[in-house]
Amino acid sequence: MSASVNKFERRRLRVRRSIRKVSGLRPRLSVFRSSKHIYAQVIDDARGVTVAAASSIDTELKPQLKKGADKAAAIEVGKLLAKRAMAAGIKDVVFDRGGYLFHGRVKALADAAREGGLNF
Q1: The total number of structural domains that make up the chain
Q2: What does the pLDDT read at residue 1?
Q3: Domain residues for 53?
Q4: What is the Cα–Cα distance from 68 to 65, expressed in whole angstroms?
Q5: Which residue, 96, 99, 95, 103, is CA-closest to 6?
Q6: From CA 46, how far away is CA 43, in angstroms rounded?
Q7: Residue 13's beta-bridge partner residues?
Q8: Which residues make Cβ contacts (< 8 Å) with residue 41, sequence separation at least 6?
Q9: Stated pTM of the model
Q10: pLDDT confidence of residue 22
Q11: Residue 51 maps to which CATH number?
Q12: Average pLDDT per consecutive 10 residues, the chain (120 residues; last block may be shorter)
């Protein structure tokens, strides 16, 4: 069990290190997925604050979603996050997939955020 956790942590740190190289002071769109929900937030690392956040347990989305851990939920979270980030004046971000592979729910969230107007 610890070997898989270590592999995940290594992937997460590797992704974070490469993001720092290319970010150029852009905020970071960070994704966390659990077995029941998906969460995303736009973080300004220079100031250390969360600019916008959305999740599948959000009061706006909860009644619409059948499950919190499927692609449909990820798409809705991506759209809501893009709307909130645009309202906060954020258009350009760098995508932080964490240690997760870029497919499935993570990819669906990223594509929906792009359609919502975020550039990355």
Answers
A1: 1
A2: 55
A3: 2-115
A4: 6
A5: 99
A6: 9
A7: none
A8: 29, 30, 50, 51, 52, 53, 54, 81
A9: 0.91
A10: 87
A11: 3.30.420.100
A12: 79 92 92 97 95 96 92 97 97 95 97 97
